[in-house]
Amino acid sequence: MPAREPKYTPEEHARHGTEIYEKVVRPKVEQGNVGKIVSIDVDTGEFELGETTLEAAERLLGRLPDAQIWSERIGYPAVYRFGGRVVANPQ
């Protein structure tokens, strides 16, 4: 299987993916799916849901083998969180 090459710079990829998510995908998937992952093909706008990035991406690649994938965690500002959580009033 040949290696897949990105079509866009990281900045272009992020811009396209975020724009498609906000304008097209989010209104369709947000209700009832908070916390799930959506993987989007930035070329076509096609998408798949999953519990993990791997699950969603594999579903999308099963339909679109050349997909340029952007992923979002529904209802969250980022797919992953680094570091511990902040406690408002530690005692």
Unreliable segments (pLDDT under 50, ≥5 consecutive)? none
- Radius of gyration, in angstroms, nearest whole number: 15 Å
**Helix fraction by DSSP (H/I, runs of at least 4):** 25-40%
- Tell me the fraction of residues in β-strands, as a range: 15-25%
Count of DSSP-assigned helices: 2
Structural category: alpha+beta
Largest sheet descriptor: 3 strands, antiparallel
The total number of structural domains is 1
SSE pattern: HEEHE
Q: What is the 3D shape?
A: globular
Nutshell version of this structure?
The chain has 91 residues and is α+β, with helices and mostly antiparallel strands. The protein has two helices and three strands, in the order H-E-E-H-E. The protein has a three-stranded antiparallel β-sheet.
Would you write up a description of this structure?
- By secondary structure, the chain is an alpha+beta fold.
- Helices cover 34% and strands 15% of the residues.
- The protein has 2 helices and 3 strands; from the N terminus they run αββαβ.
- The longest helix is centred in the N-terminal third of the chain and has 20 residues, at 10-29.
SSE layout and pairing:
Elements: H1 10-29, E1 37-41, E2 47-50, H2 53-63, E3 69-73
Antiparallel strand pairs: 1-2, 1-3
